[in-house]
Design a protein that fits this description.
The complex is a heterodimer of chains A (about 280) and B (about 260). Chain A is an all-alpha fold and about 280 residues long. Helices cover about 70% and strands about 0% of the residues of chain A. Chain B has about 260 residues and is mainly alpha-helical. The longest helix of chain B is centred in the N-terminal third of the chain and has 28 residues, at about 20-45. Classes of the chains: A mainly alpha (about 280), B mainly alpha (about 260).
């Protein structure tokens, strides 16, 4: 199908679908992941094993807690690592390129025929999935970490609210990045290259393997402001371990919000361009 | 030989898509770079890690990276066994008069992963030149044999963890804890890990023999944990044991296998 915008089957403006449709999609996303309980068990076990491995390295870096490194003390790093292992599942850092596969096979045509555009469908389902992950994949590693190590608990009440907002924004940023990787299939068909690039950069520049503050300060600040990666893992964790004043933390939320707006707009633009490029082989 | 034909066919077919292969090889190299960059960044903020300096940890990382990359290239795709069991495709392997494990390995070899192996070898040479090694014939042999023995240990772990799929199809990414987790573990001196974790990963699985003990022997350093020096030369023996154990586990798994019947 090689359509121009006037023929685009999904509604714009006048026939905007009600919020109920989005809620149903979100509920479906929640249910889909809740169905595969064994997969959830496998994932939290793996995340917890890596929690032990990563925290051992961090503990060695701060000499078994005798000093602070890059502004983190022992307990802050413990929370950083274990909450980070939980966040992986909430934002879903690594996902199979399902949407790219739909584009490659042509299944995307069914998504385009629905009254909600593909991006909004996926976003609603992803938020439902994230809701389920908060209850399972986030809680388990944090509890395991808390049982074995001394975790840092936020001192300010407001931190919990800020962290909740930050996690939501992180989920949106991560969704957009994954969406862009998948949408590359409109042009490339095979998205292994972009997928690899995302896995590498999000891990090392996002704060997963070590806090970005282990880089020189100028580089860390540059990464946080000029790239979306720290908005996925690093910023929520910095907010949780109360690095900086509440004003700084609000600023970090602002950075995340800026990336959400930019990336979602970019996704929409890419999707529109992609639809024009799309060719479904007839059958 | 039949396996060679299977292998050659795979490599040829993957080499047909040149741009894809180039992108994949680049990605593979970058994953190797990531291992090294992590160590460099950590040593930016700390002078020692578990009582070891940069040169020593760099050598461990290079050994671990080489061993893992080689195992990943040769048998890494055995982790796809899960899909084979789920879809029933595994039946097709069983009816042929060849070993099911060798077929699976030959059919799924990931040519792109040579990038990471090549980069690992370069890093190993750099690390060995950078570390204060008094080169003797024995040490030179150790330096050559260790990555190979390490690759066999990692290969055994890949196979052993993949067999979980015979009993538990929905095991998801749980094997990654031991395979990729093993790479993470072997990169650093085992002195940094807690006692329980060390017993499990370093001694029970044998990960201490991939890089830690050989590095001590190469540098002629006594083990802070009190193990005798000759353990540095024991990696090949451990590798053989690991391979046999993995093989037995595979056979048990195959005997346990019930086709999905679809």
């Amino acid at each position: 199908m090689r359509g121009d915008d006037s023929l685009a089957p999904h509604a714009t403006g006048s026939r905007a679908p009600s919020y109920r449709a989005y809620l149903a999609l979100a509920a479906a996303g929640f249910q889909r992941y809740a169905t595969y309980r064994q997969a959830t068990v496998a994932a939290v076990v793996t995340n917890s094993v890596f929690g032990f491995l990563r925290f051992a390295v961090m503990l060695a870096v701060i000499d078994a807690g005798t000093r602070t490194v890059a502004g983190y003390d022992n307990r802050q790093l413990a929370t950083f690592v274990w909450a980070g292992q939980g966040l992986i599942g909430v934002v879903l850092l690594w996902a199979l390129p399902e949407f790219a596969e739909r584009i490659r096979t042509g299944d995307v045509i069914t998504d385009l025929l629905r009254p909600i555009d593909p991006m909004s469908q996926l976003l609603a389902a992803d938020l439902g999935r994230a809701g389920y992950a908060v209850l399972t994949r986030f809680v388990v590693p944090v509890v395991v970490g808390a049982l074995v190590f001394d975790l840092y608990a936020p001192r300010r009440q407001v931190t919990y609210a800020l962290f909740a907002c930050s996690t939501l924004l992180a989920t949106l940023v991560c969704f957009s990045c994954r969406y862009l990787v998948n949408a590359a299939a409109y042009w490339l068909l095979d998205v292994r290259g972009p997928q690899t690039a995302w896995t590498l950069t999000s891990g090392i520049f996002g704060g997963l393997y070590f806090p970005v503050w282990f880089f020189p300060d100028a580089m860390a600040i540059g990464l946080i402001v000029a790239t979306p990666f720290p908005s996925v893992i690093q910023i929520p964790l910095d907010i949780l371990v109360e690095r900086g004043s509440p004003a700084v933390q609000l600023g970090l939320l602002g950075v995340q919000a800026g990336w959400v707006v930019t990336l979602l707009a970019l996704c929409r633009w890419v999707q529109r361009r992609g639809e024009r490029k799309l060719v479904i082989q007839g059958g | 030989m039949a396996y060679r034909h299977l292998l050659a066919a795979q490599v040829r077919s993957q080499a047909q898509y040149r741009a894809s292969l180039a992108v994949d090889v680049t990605g593979s190299v970058l994953f190797g770079v990531l291992d090294i960059v992590s160590v460099v960044v950590l040593f930016r903020v700390t002078p020692t890690l578990g009582g070891f300096g940069f040169a020593e940890v760099f050598l461990m990382t290079a050994l671990a990276s080489c061993a893992f990359a080689t195992a990943d290239l040769m048998v890494g795709n055995v982790e796809r066994l899960r899909q084979y069991v789920r879809s029933g495709l595994f039946d097709a392997l069983l009816v042929r008069p060849l070993s099911s494990l060798a077929q699976l390995v030959a059919m799924d070899v990931a040519t792109r992963r040579v990038g990471r192996v090549a980069f690992g070898v370069v890093m190993l040479v750099l690390a060995a030149a950078n570390a204060p090694i008094e080169l003797t014939l024995a040490r030179l042999a150790l330096l050559t044999v260790t990555p190979i023995a390490g690759a066999v240990i990692f290969g055994a772990v890949f196979v052993a963890t993949a067999t979980v799929a015979f009993w538990w199809i929905e095991s998801g990414e749980i094997a990654n804890g031991l395979t990729y987790g093993g790479l993470n573990f072997t990169q650093y001196p085992i002195t940094i890990y807690g006692a329980l974790f060390r017993r499990l990963f370093a001694y029970a699985v044998g990960f201490a023999f991939v890089a830690y003990y050989p590095t001590l022997a190469l540098l002629d350093r006594p083990d802070p944990l009190g193990a005798p020096t000759f353990l540095g030369y024991a990696a090949p023996a451990v590798a053989v044991m690991a391979a046999v154990a993995a093989g037995l586990l595979w056979q048990t798994g195959v005997r346990h296998y019930r086709s999905t019947g679809s």
